Amino acid sequence: MTTSTRGAAKTPAVLVLEDGRVFRGRAYGAVGETFGEAVFSTGMTGYQETLTDPSYHRQVVVMTAPHVGNTGVNDEDPESKRIWVSGYVVRDPARVPSSWRSRRTLDEELAAQGVVGISGIDTRALTRHLRERGAMRVGIFSGDAVRGDSALLARVQEAPQMKGANLSAEVATTEPYVVPAIGEKNFTVAAVDLGIKGMTPHRMAERGIEVHVLPATATVEDVYAVNPDGVFFSNGPGDPATADHPVSVMQGVLERGTPLFGICFGNQILGRALGFGTYKLKYGHRGINQPVQDRTTGKVEVTAHNHGFAVDAPLDQVSETPFGRAEVSHVCLNDNVVEGLQLLDRPAFSVQYHPEAAAGPHDAAYLFDRFVSLMEGQRA
User: Is 18 noted as a catalytic residue in this protein?
Assistant: First the structure.
């Protein structure tokens, strides 16, 4: 990625998809060039959380909501210390933010962090194209980076694909840190950071959990060095088929029978640890309005998603695994994608979506309580 920040608002920009489709608009954020996987997010709010979610590393996010940037940027809502998206695509950026919490405009924040974007294009047409053709590589070019379309297409087609990408270590913490319990400490959890969002340990801390966040490279010995009551595997970017190390660590946790909870990438890791495969979705699930049924209760939840891969597990039968019986606990009502797994003979479960949901629905916050119940049961 190469960037500058001068005169972006009036600078022509070009978006080029790997299949040759071209969209022309204006630079938004930094001026330069960037590459990634083109994906769309259906959320109408919470763009700060989307931008700073490490799971979006190496992705160019297309916002389906036409008007973006209304509330500007504040210093309280980021999910990590930086913006992780590779590029940003909006139709109609707000000219003036209108929130009392705003400290600067979204355009200024993107430019300050070197994130190349484009505005003024038909994001509805682009989203329909991605729904029909699938998520694909894309480049955004502005300023001196603009060349003839054929030359830009060649640059896009040279960029790495998301399938086969091993990215967790690129976004995870390099040093362990502790998020203390809020109020009385009841439990200790070792959280393996594969791209964790800041709200996740906060939701656990609210429940009296002291969270030890560990690097993606942590070993089984590192996990148990904190004497955990439970172990958590976070969300994160990349292809779960490449995540052999986290899978091995999770299998070590399952062997010991420690209560285990996984979110998003953590769900895919659990699937692999149990012997299931994973596969790439055509265009993925992203946004804060995805319907999921919890099969253990029959309840339908509105949930927040960000995943391009899924677990390949049988929906309507109990499966025998090296760690006992397992079943699909949650399913997406849009397309029957596996949205959760649970073991029946050991205290372990996972979901494919984001129950911490900031910003977004809170229908699934009970999953943190379910994790607490597993730890209480193990202690008893």
Answer: no
